[in-house]
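#struct-help
A.M.: can someone run this one for me? Single chain, 264 residues.
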Amino acid sequence: MNMSISYLNDPTAIKQWHSYISDHPQATAYHNIAWLQTVETTYQQQPVLLMAYEDGRVVGVLPLVIMRRPLMHNAICALPYCDMGHALGKDLTITQGLERFAGEYASKKGFTQLDYRNGSSMEPIPAEEMAKYNGQKITMKMPLATSSDAQMASYKSKLRSQIRKAEKNGLTIKLSHKTDLLYDFYRVFSHNMRDLGSPTHSKCWFANIMTFYQDKACMAVVYHGDIPIGAGIILMHGTLCSIPWASTLAQYNRLAPNMLLYSH
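D.P.: on it. Structure tokens below:
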């Protein structure tokens, strides 16, 4: 097995990367080159593509970003601004090899920290073991039906009535793969982050997300009349949909905008 280091200015490596992750069962939307392009374009941090080869074929990949942080030690992260960034490989030997190679690369470059966010586990956490994960981030997954009608039918009656409550309250929703809803999305999201006391990404970050992901990203905004009161972004990879950002305005929560947002 051979390892290589590539960057976003290498079209051959990018083509190989896209081809490999498109068929890998543990790949996520965050493994898409679009995430690295957004990080580089918005924040000028340097992405690094680690790739493993056997007989000239790609057998594993690991995305990294060199984080140059003011007033702090520089670090390498897989991946920043999300909860996942694990290595993908045809088997455990490949993924462990990529992890070791990432550590060696970090040491060689003089970095003292490698932040590795492993979201590759597909096994659910048993209820009796949940206490062990107190204070840690976990991933929540829900299987999706083959149609919206089938998905609605899979919900319990109480949840279906909450979704219909939003519709009865006159709420509407708009969806887009472009940036035409960006202003309304950011109006809701930044307002909510301010109320939570949490810093948020710039509007440019979300514009770049929509630009680089193209039809693999969907922006949703819920309206009460002409007022945006709920918003979210979905990133898609194969049959997996991820929701990295979603917000509703607290003063409108009685109208159940979150129910309409997530049901679509």
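A.M.: thanks! The beta strands are 2-6, 46-54, 57-67, 75-78, 88-89, 114-116, 171-176, 217-224, 227-237, 240-248.
D.P.: also worth noting: Residues 2-116 form a domain with the Aminopeptidase fold (CATH 3.40.630.30).
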